[in-house]
Amino acid sequence: MSELKIPYKIYLEENEMPKYWYNLRADMKNKPAPLLNPATLKPMTAEELSGVFCDELVKQELDDSTALFEIPEEIRNFYRMYRPSPLVRAYCLEEKLKTPAKIYYKFEGNNTSGSHKLNSAIAQAYYAKKQGLKGVTTETGAGQWGTALSMACSYFGLDCKVFMVKVSYEQKPFRREVMRTYGAQVTPSPSTETEVGRKILEKHPGTTGSLGCAISEAVEVAVKSEGYRYVLGSVLNQVLLHQSVIGLESKTAMDKYGIKPDIIIGCAGGGSNLGGLISPFMGEKLKGNADYRFIAVEPASCPSFTRGKFAYDFCDTGMVCPLAKMYTLGSGFMPSANHAGGLRYHGMSSTLSQLYHDGLMEAVSVEQTSVFDAAEKFARVEGILPAPESAHAIKVAIDEAMKCKETGEEKTILFGLTGTGYFDMVAYEKFHDGKMQDYIPSDAEIAESLSGLPTVE
Amino acid sequence: MSELKIPYKIYLEENEMPKYWYNLRADMKNKPAPLLNPATLKPMTAEELSGVFCDELVKQELDDSTALFEIPEEIRNFYRMYRPSPLVRAYCLEEKLKTPAKIYYKFEGNNTSGSHKLNSAIAQAYYAKKQGLKGVTTETGAGQWGTALSMACSYFGLDCKVFMVKVSYEQKPFRREVMRTYGAQVTPSPSTETEVGRKILEKHPGTTGSLGCAISEAVEVAVKSEGYRYVLGSVLNQVLLHQSVIGLESKTAMDKYGIKPDIIIGCAGGGSNLGGLISPFMGEKLKGNADYRFIAVEPASCPSFTRGKFAYDFCDTGMVCPLAKMYTLGSGFMPSANHAGGLRYHGMSSTLSQLYHDGLMEAVSVEQTSVFDAAEKFARVEGILPAPESAHAIKVAIDEAMKCKETGEEKTILFGLTGTGYFDMVAYEKFHDGKMQDYIPSDAEIAESLSGLPTVE
Predict the structure, then answer these.
(1) CA–CA separation, A353 and A33 (whole Å)
(2) Nearest residue of A to residue B431, measured between CA atoms
(3) CB-based contact B112 A379, cutoff 8 Å
């Protein structure tokens, strides 16, 4: 098909939308290492996991051989409310850069949660409902995942209990109110509602909380309450499975127009978006049917791929969750306070970690002022105001497009635009006022944090 | 085509998108009354208007006989970045309400300005650029229009100078930062940059500003600066012309699937969205080719259609702009401070005013707690978090759907969902906390405000 016929935005028809999620692990020769029980250091069994997660999600978490999971009709109906998301040809950005590269982005921000997080939230809520549960618990930092989960729970009539890091609860009240609009109960963490919360408050009376503490509170409430389970928005295999809808839609849209990407770029925090975007393309590569370059982009202030260690580590700061083998900076690592966007998780999805370890994927880290600069450049020509997380991918997509300008190569670049930055204007303000700073942790700082890694044979 | 085949969201193909705007006035028997020069009380000439507005926009403003205006290719290219907007079948809302009614909404919130305002902003920026101007000036309250204009100016490389009501500038900094991201210069109004601003500051040193004052400052700067013109986001005929793209897309999408709406509902402040949505349908009605019920929904706290007077009035509080014949509450009318959403303009588009006066359209007013209640109900099933403005239409769409439930009629309802409420979470918070109050101005209050109407033969 002629290049000229490619529209600004490719929307699939409803009957072209994926009916199956794709489980990339099924096609991996080196499977990601299993989760370990933190007490016994033995692989977590389905039974052990089912106290924390819904049964169906435990199955998905542990299954590394089934390639396709049917997307239940109820979830597909919900997807239809905000999907397919558009695959956009960045004609205006290309023109601005005067690059021969062809740039595409898959935009996941056109829903109220403002990001791709909803793709997995609705799946997790559905399985909770199907199991007859009353509700779910989770933690949230700035509130993107909490918002997505609130929307999903509201749709299925489930209780949703969100522990929100206290400093965000107080200083970023807008996402809190979005969650309340969807009927969620939002509690500032640490709280007096849990044992772990009370303990922390006793020890640190003035604390403004942390994600690690909020996770521990959410898990405690889930485990102790009849009819509740805990849910998580990134890192886990099940989350990457649900997020494969991003890559599947992208690939179908590109195949339809005969487009083959040379480079696929995504931002990486816990890996939910990157894993979802690359899944079907990586599957092709693993089977030897096609080749692509994959680039994970992480913040220089939280560089788990590029400066972390591939080892078993705790998934939470509170060390109550299972151990995962992953690229990690140590579960005690905290990105510098002047780090503005998300992508602040100390570790990385086990699946992506394995792929990176096996040389199937590249990773780069970028500094935040260059990220906001790319975000602003992008917004001014493409219209969309990107989330700081998403702008990490934009930054590297622009870099790659500029390399094409030098070499004259007409490469095709695909990147994931995970969401919008409407609730990140404080960070944009800092950038506009020249008050934003970059921060690169020292080798000593990372070594110190890595020294706390658990010892696993 | 079978009912079952109607997807959740109808997206037109790019080649189905409108190539012409539709000028409803061409098909009106009773034309809207002309703008009057405030000094002479004679109709404004093109020459007089061209000191304030771009030449091409003056032509569009005054032309009430040309039915179709070609949309320039540059504007269509920009439209392609965020249009077509989806026409959504509200299957989930219908199910929740258990109504036999079929509910559709045209969603204009999927762009960074968060509303339909961008449709006219890009057109006005284009004509300014084409005329070789350096830039444009405007005023903004909470910032929706200012954001749209900033995006449009950034795309065409035009200066954009926005006078933002001081209280919003200080208390609602997020939209201000969005504007800055797109390169706009945002000044809190009243400012010391203009004569009128200095005069007001001298008289009321602590004032936090008003829209009327911001308009006066923006007009002053436009008129006094070489290469600048003033632009406005609502009320004017040219704005309704550009916004007809909403109705044209809606009608094409509905025709494609053989859907004929019985009732068309839109919120009404200055009339930009309502006028745009109904234009092609009203055109059919005027030509006797079809019949539809049209319902304008306004806030009970600012009820220009339902309690105002059809008369010539000033368009701005500062009384520097031309007079327009419209339904008005008097240019000195200020909605109560506890009014949360937009739709706070004292008057109404002359075109819509004439149609309402001629009995071609209905109007209702609704109280804000019922509006937020409808907004929340809608968000929980349809996912989208609506702007308070848009929720006025939702409220009445639900009311009409519930009437169908009583009578068993399977009416088809179309309403305009103009935008998202991400920057309105303070109002949602008030609603959640039970602190939102309703306010209905007394007859005496309205009579007092109307007593200031200018005397025009």
Answers:
(1) 10
(2) A181
(3) yes
Does B380 sit within 8 Å of A155, measured CB to CB? Answer: yes
Does residue B134 sit in helix, strand or coil? coil
Domain membership flag for residue B66: yes
ipTM of the predicted structure?
0.89
Query: In which residue ranges of chain B is pLDDT below 50?
Result: 1-3
**Which of A6, A11, A73, A81 is most worth mutating to test chain B (most B CB atoms within 10 A of its CB)?**
A81
Task: Check B422 against A110: CB less than 8 A apart.
Answer: no
- Chain B residues closer than 8 Å to A82 by CB: 383
Confidence category of residue A173, pLDDT binned at 50, 70, 90: confident
Two structure tokens written together for B11: 């997206």
pLDDT computed for residue B37 by the predictor: 93
Interface test with A, best of B89, B149, B385, B390 (most A CBs within 10 A): B385
What's the confidence (pLDDT) of residue B141? 84
Selecting from A110, A379, A422 the residue whose C-beta is nearest the C-beta of B182 gives A379
Nearest to A383 among B111, B382, B384 (CB): B111
Q: Where are the beta strands (DSSP E) in A216-358?
A: 228-230, 263-267, 293-299, 309-314, 323-328
Q: How many domains does chain A have?
A: 2
Which pLDDT value is given to residue A170?
86
The letter for the amino acid at A185 is Q
Residues of A in contact with B174 (CB under 8 A): 422, 425
**One-letter-per-residue 3-state SS of B356-416:** HHCCCCEEEEECHHHHHHHHHHHHHHHCCCECHHHHHHHHHHHHHHHHHHHHCCCCEEEEE
Q: What is the DSSP letter of B3?
A: G
State the pLDDT confidence band at A108, using cuts at 50, 70 and 90.
very high
Inspect the interface and report whether the beta carbons of B428 and A154 lie closer than 8 Å.
no
Last-in-domain residue among B220, B237, B254: B237
- Among chain B residues, the shortest Cα distance to A375 is held by B181
| pLDDT > 90? residue A60 | yes
**How far is it, in rounded angstroms, from Cα B261 to Cα A120?**
36
The sign one gets for the Cα dihedral A220, A221, A226, A231 is: negative
Both A92 and A132 in one domain: the answer is: no
Judging contacts by C-beta atoms under 8 Å, the chain B residues touching residue A420 are 112
Same domain, B343 and B442: yes
Handedness of CA A233, A236, A240, A241 (dihedral sign): negative
Q: What is the CATH number of the domain that holds A151?
A: 3.40.50.1100
Percentage of chain A lying above the pLDDT 70 cut: 98
Maximum distance among all Cα pairs of chain B, rounded to whole angstroms: 67
Give the global pTM. Answer: 0.93
Q: Domain range for residue A311?
A: 8-16+82-114+240-450
Distances (CA, A) of B380 to A165, B180, B309, B417: 24, 33, 38, 15
Nearest CA in chain B to A155: B381
Cα(A190)–Cα(A198) distance, rounded to whole angstroms? 7
CA triple B128-B130-B132, angle to 5 deg: 75
Give how far A284 is from chain B: nearest CA, Å. Answer: 30
Integer CA distances (angstroms), A105 to A398, A415, B77, B82, in order: 12, 5, 18, 14
Q: What's residue A222's pLDDT?
A: 95
Shared domain for A285 and A366, answered yes or no, is yes
Sign of CA dihedral A250, A251, A257, A258: positive
The band of A1, judged by pLDDT with boundaries at 50, 70 and 90, is very low
Q: Do A319 and A403 reside in the same domain of the chain?
A: yes
Min Cα distance B93 → chain A (Å) is 11
Answer whether B112 sits within 8 Å of A181, measured CB to CB. no
**% pLDDT > 90, chain A:** 84
Q: Average pLDDT for residues A247-261, to the nearest whole number?
A: 97
Q: Are residues B326 and B183 in the same domain?
A: no
